[in-house]
Amino acid sequence: QVRYTDGSYASPSGQYWKSTEPSDHPEFEGGIDYWRTSIMTFVLFGSLSTAFIAHYNGPKFYFQLRDASPRRFNIVVGVGFFIAWAIYVWVMSVGYLTFGEASEGLILNNYSEEDPLATAARVAIGFAVMFGFPLAFTSLRDNTISALGLTDAKKSVFYAVTIALLVPITLAGCFLR
């Protein structure tokens, strides 16, 4: 919100205008359209898929809840998910209102590498991916092994499935911007 309100990217006189690619400069020629989609929308979906990843720890959270009951757990989960949803909507909206049609699927790609707030956000995203990806990947790998009926297989199958899944995921991550 700071960069949206201070105009750092809004015009050639903005603090970070010159340090961003011309393709990342704000574009509002067609007005504001919150529902425009492109192939890069899938990058956004990938980011959103980790937004609500807490279900991997759901049972643990339930048993740690004081006076645990399904009703109390549902309230805690509902409030937590609503707060996460509100933060995501706020960040996406402010990012879109800052860059308009030039917004990329990962909005941080629009911000200057010289912007310390954007750099801090990139570091935070890096930590989120670094610690969230193994949770999702472990589930993908285990369910793939189960779906292929390889549950009693040797470690070599475990490693082969791990590599077979990691390689395309990593390549997609390297080539999708």
Automatic annotation (TrEMBL):
Region Disordered: start-end pairs: 1-25
InterPro entries: AA_transpt_TM (IPR013057)
Single Gene Ontology MF annotation: L-amino acid transmembrane transporter activity
Domain Amino acid transporter transmembrane: 41-142
Listed Pfam families: Aa_trans (PF01490)
Subcellular location: Membrane
Membrane topology type: Multi-pass membrane protein
Chief localisation class: membrane
Compositionally biased spans, kind Polar residues: 8-20
Transmembrane segments annotated in the record for this chain: 34-54, 75-99, 119-137, 157-176
Protein name: Amino acid transporter transmembrane domain-containing protein
Organism annotation: Alexandrium catenella
